[in-house]
Amino acid sequence: MKRALVNGAGGFIGSHLVRRLRQEGYWVRGVDLKYPEFSETAAQEFFVGDLRDFSVVEKAVDGIDDVYQLAADMGGAGYIFTGEHDACVMHNSATINLNTVEAGHKAAVKRFFYSSSACIYPERNQTDPDNPICSEDSAYPAAPDSEYGWEKLFSERLYFAYARNYKLEVHVARFHNIFGPEGTWQGGREKAPAAVCRKVAEAPDGGEIEIWGDGQQTRSFLYIDECLEGVRRLMESRFSGPVNIGSEEMVTINGLAEMAMRIAGKKLNIRHIPGPLGVRGRNSDNRLISKEIGWAPSQHLEVGLTKTYQWVASQVRSARGALASANS
Ligand code: NAD
Question: Any catalytic annotation for residue 148?
């Protein structure tokens, strides 16, 4: 049985990835600062530990064939674009990556997957919301718009340096806004799809929701199951990347909110308020991944958003129920 380690197994993508690897017959060890928030981990073994500590990482990689390095100090725009968390984001995530690749190399891990991000792409190519450029070769000269993006770029280079010098097998994907059930949906680290679903679920029909900026900023969003299919195919391929794993179905944030309202069957006003925004436009460019490994998303955004809305709405209902019983 092949043995996989998932760093960040208590997080959104990591907890889903553990489940997927188990379904494929892997023996899985997960490591994270915390257990998954919304369901039991599917991992056979789960260490609660801090991957900034080298001795924890040494224990984690012991006896492992494949490492999936997803642990990072991260969040949505409300966390990474305000500037308040820059030092932590850079220090924590870089330390995790330095430890993982070094300990993994020493333990003779066979293959590494590293989750980079669309946030590495230069801001100058993402000012036109209708025509953002995010082809893999546009990453340099580098100019990410956040320290989160700079750390991701550094760590991409770190894995490729180890691959070059120590002949490790490395696969690097640049994720573009992954979403789905069991993702953070409140508290400041949530991403746009979960935040929009929560606002729509909380608002009474005919009410109002707030959107940061004018809502004309564009993005694309990839449903979690599609992301995992891309990750697994990349890992099984001979292609190292870095390569985009995202959707090419670009929407404005207003459009995303309207889609969520349609799903919920509610009519709501959108009030635009100031807030952290990130780049003006961003879309995945899937030409390279399609050419190299033949992967592309199989479903439209609305399919994944419907499942996500239903899940977020159930969380909102349970939170309200808990509050009501606490007050009674
Ligand atoms: P997440 O925040 O849900 O998961 C990250 C996990 O890492 C968390 O559970 C956190 O507790 C853990 N972690 C952080 N510091 C740690 C430490 N010192 N020791 C042990 N565990 C630690 O995020 P996610 O959405 O699941 O993202 C997974 C990876 O994919 C991250 O590297 C992220 O940067 C990358 N990524 C995600 C997206 C997205 O849209 N979700 C987009 C681009 C890139």
Answer: yes
Query: What is the per-residue pLDDT for 321?
Result: 85
Q: How does DSSP classify residue 44? A: S
How far, in Å, from the CA of 32 to the mean position of ligand 1? Answer: 9
- In this structure, the strands spanning 218-219 and 251-252 are antiparallel
In the chain, the largest separation of any two C-alpha atoms, in whole Å, equals 64
Per-residue pLDDT band at 306 (split at 50, 70, 90): very high
Q: DSSP class of residue 204?
A: P
**Across 75-89, average pLDDT:** 85
92 lines ligand 1 (CB under 6 A): yes
Residue whose token pair is 């293959």: 111
Ligand 1 near 96 CB (within 6 A): yes
33: buried, middle or exposed (CB in 10 Å: 19+, 13-18, 0-12)?
middle
Per-residue pLDDT band at 2 (split at 50, 70, 90): very high
User: Domain 3-179+222-245: what homologous superfamily?
Assistant: NAD(P)-binding Rossmann-like Domain (3.40.50.720)
249 and 305 Cβ atoms separated by less than 8 Å = no
